Amino acid sequence: xxxxxxxxxxxxxxxxxxxxxxxxxxxxxxxxxxxxxxxxxxxxxxxxxxxxxxxxxxxxxxxxxxxxxxxxxxxxxxxxxxxxxxxxxxxxxxxxxxxxxxxxxxxxxxxxxxxxxxxxxxxxxxxxxxxxxxxxxxxxxxxxxxxxxxxxxxxxxxxxxxxxxxxxxxxxxxxxxxxxxxxxxxxxxxxxxxxxxxxxxxxxxxxxxxxxxxxxxxxxxxxxxxxxxxxxxxxxxxxxxxxxxxxxxxxxxxxxxxxxxxxxxxxxxxxxxxxxxxxxxxxxxxxxxxxxxxxxxxxxxxxxxxxxxxxxxxxxxxxxxxxxxxxxxxxxxxxxxxxxxxxxxxxxxxxxxxxxxxxxxxxxxxxxxxxxxxxxxxxxxxxxxxxxxxxxxxxxxxxxxxxxxxxxxxxxxxxxxxxxxxxxxxxxxxxxxxxxxxxxxxxxx
Length: 445
Ligand code: TRP
Fold this sequence. Notes:
Bound molecules: tryptophan
Shape: globular
CATH superfamily: Hydantoin permease
Number of helices: 18
Mean pLDDT: 93
Largest sheet: 2 strands, antiparallel
Distance between the termini: 55 Å
Radius of gyration: 21 Å
Helix content: over 70%
Number of domains: 1
């Protein structure tokens, strides 16, 4: 009993380690800032509640009943022989695209661990100059921190020491939450807080475009690690009697709470300093350091801990992006873990370097395609196109191709019939229709 219980918590920890990452603290606030605030947040929350949790559960289900890598899972669970469903499993390679630019951001965080100790900018203008200077001009330093981040992630995956990392996370995740709560209470005392609350929670529909709707849906997928086979892969080693439903809800709720906290804190400081919410990818790096700087030596300590904890949150997420393709390559192509990792690692290092360079003045023109830098293309392609498409496929697969009896048998211990029917209806109709509508809307309007 004791062992099973530990493993169940283990799944929640692993899934939460994957879900909670830079998506919550770096990406969610800046996307919200760029897309006008409240309406974006509302669409994001609706997507998580009505689509995200259901899809999360669908991915858990696929992993749990197939107990195979994503490609083999689609292949064996599909009733059609010689079927094309296995191609849906290639969603695992989206993880490579995500990891490329994600590693660049982990590199930035490494630099900010250093900055927290030695050179916190004293006001928001300087903080903006520091961040934009780093991203636009400092190729050497960025390549250096990117390479360290890359090496660390690859080393963790190659050693399979993710269990060890999760133990570290057991300390650092609460530390991150603790720091966020601390900053939150500080934020409440500032004038900017009221503005932050209305910016995040009062929808301004005039700011909504087909682009921002798709971005909100994409962000919901990104933050829950959906559409890459990550959750499928983690659910493979789930103990049989885990409460799948409860675990999914806990992870989604925790993930959402952390993103909202981060948003409230960051925007309070932004408004406190009279800065614009539209700082782009630099938002968290521009809004927090000047504040840490005002706190004196305490600020150095808090800043240091904050960025260290954030780096770890990012690394556990990073590892979870690559595991699905590793499992696929080692299982199906009988590759050694080393070989699979060197192939994937090479792709990630090359794409990541190009993403990094695409933000610099020197190379931004060469690495721009139809007006978008390569860094942003990787992000847009994965979050706004490939993950939602994969989500549609997962929903159709679970809704129409796996026998309902089988699904019911797996899930019924954990939910009553009414909730099951609601979930099944969401999977069969709501998700395919709503997500395609959002994507088609973006193409035509
Ligand atoms: N969810 C993570 C975050 O918010 C990122 C992440 C981890 C991810 N694994 C993933 C995103 C798989 C997409 C797919 O930072």
